[in-house]
């Protein structure tokens, strides 16, 4: 029932047009008259909101068939070292560690493009409207242009989609519903 519920959540997620045709996200910094100017290209928020709704049972850890629960159960169920390595890498994409290898945004010792900050932001603004978390997030991010944290958060949400899709494929493999599995794995750029 756990894997079936998760597969259903991923199927619902994949039905969204924003998942079928992901938007192009871009970030631009430039210096103009001695001042830093920032701009981001983001999808309209009304197209992101259904994504947030469909991701909710996958990303909230207290949910019956969350990503964390399914990943842990699969790790216990499949003894293959190669399978577990793929599972670990999927978790790194899911929780933002892979993105942080490419770019890490921090302020006062806090990594802004992290799982913890994303979840606090979601619970403050989108899921629970938690006022104490909202005050905390506003203090942490209030000095930034609004689109900068949103850019990283939306990018992290799409990483969660890709990781959930990969996990669904691994679950189908473990259940015997498929015999092969191919994952699209984004690679970090070489260190400079």
How would you sum up this structure in a few lines?
By secondary structure, the protein is mostly helical.
3D architecture notes:
It is a single chain. The protein has helices at 2-14, 17-20, 45-59, 67-77, 81-94, 97-102, 115-126, 131-141, 147-175; strands spanning 26-32, 35-41, 106-107, 110-111. It is mainly α and 192 residues long. β3 (106-107) and β4 (110-111) form a beta hairpin. α1 (2-14) runs antiparallel to α3 (45-59) and α4 packs antiparallel against α5. The longest helix has 29 residues, at 147-175.
List keywords for this structure.
elongated, 9 helices, 192 residues, 9% strand, two-stranded antiparallel sheet, mainly alpha, two-stranded antiparallel ribbon, disordered C terminus
Stretches with pLDDT under 50, minimum 5 residues: 188-192
Span between N and C termini? 46 Å
Strand composition percent: 5-15%
Approximate helicity band = 55-70%
Give the beta-strand count.
Answer: 4
Mean pLDDT: 90
The profile of the biggest β sheet is:
2 strands, antiparallel
């Amino acid at each position: 029932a756990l894997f079936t519920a998760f597969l259903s959540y991923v199927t619902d997620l994949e039905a969204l047009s924003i998942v079928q045709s992901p938007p192009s996200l871009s970030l631009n910094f430039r210096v103009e008259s001695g001042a830093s100017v920032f701009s981001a290209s983001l999808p309209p928020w009304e197209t992101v909101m259904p994504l947030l709704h469909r991701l909710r049972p996958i990303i909230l850890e207290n949910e019956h068939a969350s990503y964390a629960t399914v990943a842990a159960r699969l790790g216990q169920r499949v003894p293959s070292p190669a399978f577990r390595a793929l599972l670990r890498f999927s978790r790194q994409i899911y929780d933002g560690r892979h993105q942080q290898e490419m770019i890490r945004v921090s302020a006062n010792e806090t990594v802004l493009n992290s799982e913890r900050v994303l979840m606090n932001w979601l619970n403050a603004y989108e899921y629970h409207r938690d006022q104490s978390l909202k005050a905390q997030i506003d203090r942490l991010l209030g000095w930034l242009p609004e689109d900068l944290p949103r850019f990283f958060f939306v990018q992290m949400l799409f990483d969660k989609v890709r990781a959930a899709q990969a996990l669904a494929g691994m679950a189908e493999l473990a259940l015997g519903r498929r015999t092969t599995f191919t994952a699209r794995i984004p690679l970090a750029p070489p260190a400079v």
